[in-house]
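Reopening this one. Same input as before:
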Amino acid sequence: MRVERNICIRNSIEGYFEVEMILRGDLTEYATLSEYYLVLAPKSMPGGGKCVNFVLQLPEKLEKPGRHQLWVWAGQVVGGPEGETMLGGRVEVGTDLKIYVPIPGKYIEADFTVDSREVGEIVTFTISAINRGNQTIESAQGAIDIYDQDRNKIAFVKTNIESMEPSVWTEFKAQWMANVEPGELLANATIDYDGFKTFLSKDFRVGSPTAKILNVTYEPIVNGTIGTIKTEVISYWSQRIENAYVTITAKRGSYSGSSQSPSMVLNPWKKAEFTNFWDTSDAPGPGEYQGIATLSYLNKTDTKEFTLRVIEKPGFVFPDVMWIIVVILIIIFVVLILLTVGRRRKKFKQVRLA
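Same output, byte for byte:
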C-alpha cells in the first residue's frame, strides 16, 4: 500500500521563518519526506509558502492489528549563535494519518450521540459503528437503557438490525418520547453482534423553561444587623432566562420582613447565585424565623422553605490575649514593688550604720 500527499506550510508573520519537518508515530520507518528543512519567506513575499512531498510505503502485511498512527509535524527552528543555548517557545503544527489493520474475527468500534430535547419532544439516539474485524457481522443491534437524574431506569429502546461488512460504517438509530421531568439523563447502549457485545454511555439533557432553587445558605445573623442570604438556583432550559430574581421572606408571629435580590440572567443549564440582604433592626429579636425563598422568572415561581436563625449580639468578652497582658503587667508591678522595697531596706540599713 502506497500513500502519497503534498503537505503545504505557509508563513503567517512578516519575517523569515525556519521550519524543521518531523515524523512521529509507529509507522515512521515506512515514511519519507522530500525535504526536512525549509526557510519560509515573509507572508507578503513569494516563497511565503512551500510544499513537501510525503510518501508512506507500507509492506504487504503489518503484523500488529488495530490502529496505527503517523504524525507529520512542522516545527519552528529555535536556536542562537553557535555555542549559545536559546530559551523560548517553539511553534509546532501537524497533521496525522491513521491506518487500520483489520483485527482477526469480528470487532466493532462505535460512537454514541444523543440529541438533547425539550420535555414532550422525541429524543434520537444514534450509534455510528464500524466493523474493524476481517469477518462479516451477520446481525448487529443496539439496546439502550435510559436513566433519570437519580439513575433510576425509566425507559428501554432498541435500534434497527443490520449486517456489517469489514471496514464499513453502519448507523443504528432509536427514538424515545421524553415525557419526563427536566434534567440531565443517562443513556447506556449495548451493541449485540453475533454473540459479542460493545458498551457505550452518554449523558444528555431533557429541558423545559424551568428553573429551580437548589439551596439557601447564610452566615450567622446577629440581632439588629443586616444579614446576607445566598440562594443557589439552576436553569433547566436550553435558552437564556432574563430578569430572574429571588425574594426572601422572614416570618415570626405577626412579623413579616422581605428582601428582593437584583435581577439576573440564567444561562442555559447553568447554576447561578442570588444575594439578598435582610435588615433585622425591626425584627422581634433573636430566635428562629420561617424563611421562604421565592425564585421569580418567566411569570413562574419556585419556592423553598428554610429556617432563619437570629442570634443575640454578643457582650464584651475579655480576649485571651488581654488576660495574658494583664498577667504580665501584674508580674511587672510585683517585681517593681519588690525592687522598691529592697532599695528602701538597704537605704535604711545604711542610715542606721551611719
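So the earlier flakiness isn't reproducible anymore. For the record, The CA atoms of residues 56 and 343 lie 105 Å apart.
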